[in-house]
Amino acid sequence: MSTSIDTTDSEDAVSHPAMTLGAGSGRMLDFIQQLSLNERDAMKAMLGDQVSSFFDSNNRLRRDQESSVEQFDLLAETLRNLTPHSDTIPANGIAYRGSPAWVTADLLLKLQEEAHSRRDQPLDRMDHFLGCGGQVADALSVSPELVEFVAEHVGPVSPTGIASYLYYDQAGLGIRPHVDTEVFSVNLILMLRHEYEAGSEPSATVVFPARSEPEAYRLQIGEVMIMHGSSVIHGRSLVQQGEDIHLLTIGFNRIFPGN
Ligand SMILES: [Fe+2]
To answer: Where on the tree of life does the source sit, at the highest rank (predicted)?
Structure first.
């Protein structure tokens, strides 16, 4: 077993051919701009349900037909355009990746211990194991220092107070590609543990921007990523035999003038 030292790299990205969209992209944008916020939410939920059909059972983007690639790009672009103030969001949805000063060795240790201690409790199982936060994670999720840090990278936010430990510790777990709801539009991820067998390809968070190569992110222990999860299609590639990942995720909502 070894500790993850991987970084994002293009050779890890699932590639697909370059493609161009036709006039459909512009017409869709015109249509979206006529919709009310409620109508946009409804359309986004409906289109969000279509995302999974573009991926195979290994959470990899299907590339079997050029038409399906174009349809995927139109879907990804439309989901992004339906997100409020999408023009202020990076194309890949990633607002930050790094090792901020607030992740001290002491805080990291406390979060790692809390995550570990809660792994044995009954957890929700989807395609990964989901646990609520704990005392340490919950306090962090609403701390003024953290809110200020997130706001520096995405603009004003309000904390949801929702902190969750995620566990990927069985082969075949992962997260099916999807977009998040507006309730949890900004997602902060902190890597707490990542072990894997030497020679295997470790699981990664993968984002799938429209008309671009998918990007795979393997965070180091203590590293943080902030993602506009409601704007970009994202998932986790499948966990390999012997792999063990503990993550903390914390949700935020962007605040805009007038809301
Ligand atoms: Fe998500």
So the answer is: Bacteria
Q: How confident is the model at residue 7 (pLDDT cuts 50, 70, 90)?
A: very low
HSE, CB side, 13 Å, CA atoms: give it for residue 49.
5
pLDDT above 60: residue 20: no
| CA triple 61-205-59, angle to 5 deg | 30
Report CA(13)–ligand 1 centroid distance (Å).
Answer: 18
Ligand 1 center–CA 141 separation, angstroms: 17
Question: How are beta strands 94-98 and 215-217 bridged, if at all?
Answer: unpaired
pTM of the model: 0.85
Find out if CATH 2.60.120.620 is the number for domain 2-11+91-254: yes
Q: How far, in Å, from the CA of 107 to the mean position of ligand 1?
A: 24
Q: What percent of the chain has pLDDT over 70?
A: 86
Query: Measured in angstroms, how far is the CA atom of residue 229 from the centroid of ligand 1?
Result: 6
Q: Give me 145's structure tokens.
A: 């220092």
